[in-house]
């Protein structure tokens, strides 16, 4: 039997990339307002407010075959404050003809203003025009500029692309005039991607969201193409034999980042809408000829989502038309969601309702009503995320989520905010997690205020704000007024207070419920939730939240009642009364109404564990709540807030549980515990317990496998199989070796890899030296022409999967001591990272470092990054006293020789000491529970290797 379940664990986390069961991007792609791009703009210096734009007249001429564009813009302005200068955004890549620059006063017959000079500000995307005389307050002016630039592929601003389709036409409205359009299979297009601040790459402008003004736009196009724009086409004017000018209807007031167009020869997908359905705006879908069948239902899905959102907002979009484009070769992660024109990747537009709904929400909240500044982008995005999930759920039950919303992001939030240093101090990650937490807080308010009050509050928020901007407080104030009106909050409480207690902290609380069974009461306390040790976060005792305490009792299992029995109003402790008798449990925060874990006294936990093990009663507790109870128990134990004996009791019902939502977090929970006990004698017993849980689940899923089955079944079976394979499950290993042998027997093994990725790790872990060596040679001889990611995967598995030290030693000797030229420094860093995934890896790396110290020092003399990575991976993962002694001895033996890694090994020693304390406290408890369980439950060892 394999000693190191960590190979299995590492495989799930490092190779499968499945934090908490599935990565959140797998079911929910974070879209539109790109927080990582918007965050740096929060501290950006704003343009002076002396001059305020009132409108743009813009003429653009993109030249497709030369990949350049030219244009002219007239900007009308009002002088709000006396000034002698005008500042506009203009990217350094944008050429502005300073000789062809005129400024006129529109209410005067005088000639152009006298310009003293024009500056392009170094290191800032600004164009500043200085005048001889000050401009007059209240007067109107017009700035006229000519400009030009290059069109690049996959660059913000104006981008170019191409696609191929079968020969035989498929061009635009006048394709017949172009023989080339009929014969060529390559088609070109040009489009825009302006979010969050890329309009300045195309024309000089006031490129800030608060400036919302109308645009009058004309665009030159080839006669073989057409132009989609924010508004409808007004007229077309001839230009020359090959080109025409499309003139569009004036836009409503809008921010520059919602401006967008697409010049292409895509075809409109025939409408399947009922002519009697007068839904506004009119929806049009565009795609290449060969893709029309794939998007035949998109218009109908957009219309369904639009109706739902119009019902929610209580107001229709003020647009005459909405164009939805499936753009081939579109490479951006996020759609280009311009007002009235949404451009998707082809692969994204064919999915369920969530993606469509999210982009439609941005038409209301983002385009029509806009955040005043980038600091409120996360609120905008959080509302969009919540409403999109809500819309998708109301339409078809959220089938595309497979029930994972909101659990996947919730578990990730729990994990991230319980670290000593959330986000690893990476600002972009902080913006994303803050946005996700805000979305969960909105979900909490939707429950606790009531869905009707919450919806009416958002409707109140957008009323009278058409074509204007907002900040976060505007949202919370509207919800507060509605909650007071509906008597869902007392007059002394505001939603602002509740929300700010959550989103202003990079933390979440943990609620502890200790019952007094004789008195039928409970004391509820809150404090900071921390999993990562040591628990020495500054000022944690001062952190308090507004927390709704929703209670479900065993004697009245009504999970529809989501009203808070009590609110913890940023106080440390409250009391609950009138609880059930001493033999009945309570559940606080059912269905994860609020984003916080809950701990109970041991008796309540055990009442829950017993109830869940009974088939007739388990399903009386909904799936989300069963998942929460399991997830909270294990994580609280890991954090040191709950006995592992109690936590393991809460896993006993998993022998009978078959719902994938309850199982999803289990794999990562196994990972976390497995990592911690990897080097201890308890590990083998833990692995045996994991096998008893997973083997019947997997075999049942295999027995019930069908060709047409729900995706969640396939995913759950795949997860269970991967874990069991890495734990030595014989049927899986034999299947993997049969598949791998076909590769070994192929006449040209370097031509390609015919083995599915799922088979490689089990073979490298459990297979022969010959099989592992074969994989190593495939990396060494990897052809340049093949996809590099295949080599990377092989390299990861060669290092991360084996439990035998001789395989890892062989790899380290070749890469480090022999300095084999087939391996780059990036390869070596990757190997060090993979070896840190399990004790067989990092302990072998440690011994390799210990026995080859002098030679390694010479190899890494001028490669400090590699040296630091090696010391970190070789010394930082031990969790026992034995490991501490080993690392400490190395530190003393080579005192003063660590160079740049001196602080790394010192930190390692500090962390190991903390982890050793955890092991001393918890391993005896875990072992005692496992001994008792294994003594009374048979384990099918004959099905496993080793």
Structure description:
GO terms for molecular function: aminopeptidase activity; metallopeptidase activity; zinc ion binding. Its EC number is 3.4.11.-. Residues 52-257 form the Aminopeptidase N-like N-terminal domain. There is one protein chain. The protein has 946 residues and is an alpha+beta fold. The protein folds into 5 domains: 20-48 and 266-506, Neutral Protease Domain 2 (Neutral Protease, domain 2, Orthogonal Bundle), CATH 1.10.390.10; 50-164 and 184-265, Immunoglobulin-like, CATH 2.60.40; 509-661, Immunoglobulin-like (Sandwich), CATH 2.60.40.1910; 731-801, no CATH class; 802-939. The strands form 8 sheets. Strands 4-7-2-1-11-14-13 form a 7-stranded mixed sheet, with no helix packed on it. A 5-stranded mixed sheet has the order 8-9-10-15-12, with no helix packed on it. The radius of gyration is 31 Å and the shape is globular.
């Amino acid at each position: 039997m394999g000693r190191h379940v960590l190979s299995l664990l590492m495989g799930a986390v490092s190779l499968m990339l499945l934090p908490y069961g599935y990565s959140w991007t797998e079911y929910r792609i974070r879209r539109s307002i790109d927080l990582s791009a918007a965050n740096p703009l929060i501290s950006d210096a704003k343009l002076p407010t002396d001059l305020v734009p009132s409108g743009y007249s813009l003429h653009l001429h993109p030249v497709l075959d030369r990949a350049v564009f030219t244009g002219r813009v007239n900007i009308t302005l009002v002088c709000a404050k006396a000034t002698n200068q005008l500042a506009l955004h203009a990217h350094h890549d944008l050429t502005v003809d300073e000789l062809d620059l005129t400024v006129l006063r529109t209410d005067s017959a005088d000639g152009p203003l006298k310009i003293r000079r024009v500056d392009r500000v170094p290191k800032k995307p600004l164009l500043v025009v200085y005048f001889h005389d000050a401009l007059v307050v209240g007067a109107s002016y017009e700035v006229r500029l000519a400009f030009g630039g290059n069109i690049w592929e996959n660059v913000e601003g104006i981008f170019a692309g191409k696609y191929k389709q079968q020969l035989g036409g498929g061009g635009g409205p006048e394709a017949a005039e172009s023989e080339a359009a009929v014969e060529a299979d390559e088609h070109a297009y040009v489009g825009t991607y302006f979010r969050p601040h890329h309009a300045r790459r195309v024309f000089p402008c006031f490129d800030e969201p608060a400036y919302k003004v109308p645009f009058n736009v004309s665009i030159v196009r080839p006669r073989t193409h057409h132009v989609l724009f924010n508004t409808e086409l007004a007229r077309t004017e001839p230009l020359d034999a090959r080109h025409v000018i499309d003139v569009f209807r004036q836009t409503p007031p809008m921010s520059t980042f919602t401006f967008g167009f697409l010049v292409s020869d895509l075809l409109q997908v025939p409408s399947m809408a009922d002519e009697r359905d007068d839904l506004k705006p009119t929806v049009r879908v565009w795609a290449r000829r060969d893709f029309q069948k794939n998007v035949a239902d998109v218009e109908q899905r957009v219309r369904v989502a639009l109706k739902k959102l119009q019902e929610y907002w209580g107001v229709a979009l003020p647009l005459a038309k909405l164009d939805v484009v499936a753009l081939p070769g579109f490479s951006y992660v996020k759609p280009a969601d311009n007002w009235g024109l949404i451009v998707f990747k082809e692969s994204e537009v064919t999915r369920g309702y969530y993606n469509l709904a999210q982009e439609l929400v941005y038409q209301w909240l983002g385009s029509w009503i806009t955040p005043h500044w980038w600091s409120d982008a996360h609120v905008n995005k959080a509302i969009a995320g919540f409403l999109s999930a809500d819309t998708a759920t109301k339409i078809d039950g959220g089938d595309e989520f497979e029930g994972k919303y909101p659990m996947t992001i919730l578990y990730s939030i729990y994990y991230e905010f319980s670290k000593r240093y959330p986000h690893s101090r990476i600002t972009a990650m902080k913006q994303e997690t803050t946005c996700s937490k805000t979305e969960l807080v909105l979900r909490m308010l939707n429950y606790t205020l009531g869905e009707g009050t919450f919806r009416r509050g958002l409707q109140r928020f957008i009323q009278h704000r058409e074509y204007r901007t907002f900040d976060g407080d505007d949202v919370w104030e509207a919800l507060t007024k509605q909650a007071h009106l509906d008597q869902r909050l007392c007059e002394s409480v505001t939603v602002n207070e509740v929300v700010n207690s959550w989103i202003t902290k990079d933390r979440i609380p943990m609620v502890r419920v200790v019952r007094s069974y004789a008195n039928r009461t409970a004391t509820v306390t809150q404090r900071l939730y921390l999993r990562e040790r040591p628990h020495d976060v500054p000022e944690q005792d001062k952190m308090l939240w507004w927390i709704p305490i929703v209670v479900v009792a065993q004697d009245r299992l009504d999970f529809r009642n989501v009203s808070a029995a009590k609110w913890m109003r940023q106080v440390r402790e409250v009391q609950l009364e009138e609880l059930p008798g001493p033999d009945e449990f309570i559940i606080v925060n059912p269905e994860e109404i609020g984003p916080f874990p809950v701990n109970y006294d041991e008796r309540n936990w055990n009442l829950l564990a017993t109830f869940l093990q009974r088939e007739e009663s388990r399903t009386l507790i909904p799936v989300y709540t069963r998942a929460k109870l399991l997830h909270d128990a294990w994580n609280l134990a890991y954090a040191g807030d709950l006995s592992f004996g109690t936590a393991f009791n809460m896993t006993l019902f998993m022998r009978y549980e078959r719902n994938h939502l309850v199982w999803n977090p289990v794999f990562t929970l196994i990972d976390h515990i497995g990592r911690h006990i990897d080097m201890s004698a308890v590990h083998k017993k833990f692995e045996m317990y994991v096998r008893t849980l997973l083997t019947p689940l997997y075999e049942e899923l295999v027995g019930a496998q069908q060709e047409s089955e729900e995706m969640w079944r396939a995913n759950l079976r795949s997860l269970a199989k991967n874990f069991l394979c890495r734990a030595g499950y014989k049927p899986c290993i034999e299947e993997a070796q049969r598949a791998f042998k076909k590769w070994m027997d192929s006449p040209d093994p370097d031509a390609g890899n015919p083995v599915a990725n799922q088979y490689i790790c089990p073979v490298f872990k459990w297979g022969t030296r010959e099989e592992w060596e074969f994989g190593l040679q495939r990396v060494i001889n990897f052809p340049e022409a093949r996809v590099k990611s295949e080599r990377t995967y092989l390299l990861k598995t060669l290092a991360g999967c084996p439990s035998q030290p001789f395989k890892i030693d062989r790899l380290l000797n070749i890469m480090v001591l022999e300095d084999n030229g087939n391996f780059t420094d990036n390869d070596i860093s990757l190997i060090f990272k993979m070896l840190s995934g399990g004790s067989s890896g990092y302990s072998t790396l440690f011994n390799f470092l210990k026995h080859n110290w002098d030679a390694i020092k010479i190899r890494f003399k001028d490669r400090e990054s590699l040296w630091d990575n090696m010391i970190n991976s070789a010394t930082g993962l031990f969790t026992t006293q034995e490991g501490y002694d080993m690392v400490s001895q190395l530190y003393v033996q080579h005192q003063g020789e660590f160079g740049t890694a001196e602080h790394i090994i010192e930190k390692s020693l500090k962390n190991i000491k903390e982890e050793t304390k955890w092991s001393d406290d918890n391993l005896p408890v875990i072992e005692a529970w496992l001994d008792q369980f294994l003594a009374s439950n048979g384990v099918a060892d004959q099905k496993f290797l080793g």
